[in-house]
Amino acid sequence: MREVYFIKQNKEKWLGIEQVVQGKIKKNPDDLSSLYINLVNDLSFAQTYYPKSNTTVYLNHLSSQIFQKIYKTKRVEENRLIYFFKTEVPLIVYENRRYLVYSFLFFIFFMLIGVLSAIYDNEFANLILSRGYVNMTIENIKNGNAVGVYQDGSTWGSTIGITFNNIIVGAKLYIYGITCGIGTLYLLMHNSIMVGTFQYFFYQHGALGDSARGIWLHGAFEIFSMVVEGMCGLILGTSILFPKTLSRFNSFKNGFKNSFKIFLSTIPFTICAGILEGYVTRHALEMPLILNLVIIFGCLGIIGFYYFVYPRIVNRRIKNLINDAIL
């Protein structure tokens, strides 16, 4: 069968499924399963005869959306908050995983720009970090206390201020995606260059090890969350730029809904980063090195698992559940 005829023959059915996914048409669980079976059959046909076609990509995307809706409709009674973090967010992250990769690549690229700029321009650190901060930190390093800046102020006051500021920065990274992603990339560039410059500055003054022991205690959660928030902004931006088969407005609504849920999932990590920075980082150089490493790599492992590994596990589990239900 020619692809054009295949599309013409099934177009109305697929558009109807889109209406169901968007919530414009209500279906009971049995009807949803029937729709999914038909869609899987169409996807299998397309994968066989048009493997590199946009039709196959479209059907694969649509099938992933409908099985999320089936599972959400059929799921057993479960605390909504637990379901949100345990199933809903990981499925959305899996579906948009390429944007997480893009955000990480941009972060690494911009961070390297910060490092190279600091290497070739001695004034770059003063420009990015401010001359006052640089002079104060150099003095702290000379006094053998590279993380002295984190010891100012009360623990609870620092925690509240830092957490609030980090949430605002993350929200901007996300919301600025409405500029078709340009605002998100600009903020991600600014923060990534700052991270690169910051780390090279300590290396330049022989305190990279001490700074890493302190900064990455909270930075593991804080920086990783920043990258995920950049991912949210990219999702929002591309939903406007590339609506695919949807109207631009409906594409934006879907992009906003999905990216907002991912953004919300970063809030607990941001709060934990604020608590660590307010209460733990100030004691970084007094702690045994092994404890620093356990906290740093433990935080990296937790957040890395949640956004990179766990979504694949959930996606595989849901597919198995649906296939078992269909069979």
Keywords:
82% helix, Stage II sporulation protein M, elongated, mainly alpha, membrane, 12 helices, 327 residues
One letter per element, helices H and strands E, the order comes to HHHHHHHHHHHH
Q: Spans of 5+ residues with little confidence (pLDDT < 50)?
A: none
Output mean pLDDT. Answer: 86
Q: Total strand count, please?
A: 0
Number of helices: 12
Q: What is the terminal-to-terminal distance?
A: 27 Å
Q: Which structural class do you get from the secondary structure elements?
A: mainly alpha
Strand content: under 5%
For the largest beta-sheet, the strand count, sense and barrel status come to: none
Shape: elongated
Q: What is the share of helical residues?
A: over 70%
Radius of gyration: 24 Å
Describe the structure.
- It holds the Pfam family SpoIIM.
- The chain is mostly helical.
- Helix content is 82%, strand content 0%.
- Helix 5 crosses helix 10 (208-241).
- The longest helix has 38 residues, at 289-326.
- The protein starts with a helix and ends with a helix.
- The model has no long low-confidence stretch (mean pLDDT 86).
Topology:
Layout (H helix, E strand, L loop, with lengths): L2 H19 L7 H21 L4 H21 L5 H16 L1 H24 L3 H6 L1 H12 L12 H21 L6 H23 L3 H34 L6 H32 L9 H38 L1
Structure at a glance:
The protein has helices spanning 3-21, 29-49, 54-74, 80-95, 97-120, 124-129, 131-142, 155-175, 182-204, 208-241, 248-279, 289-326. By secondary structure, the protein is mainly α.
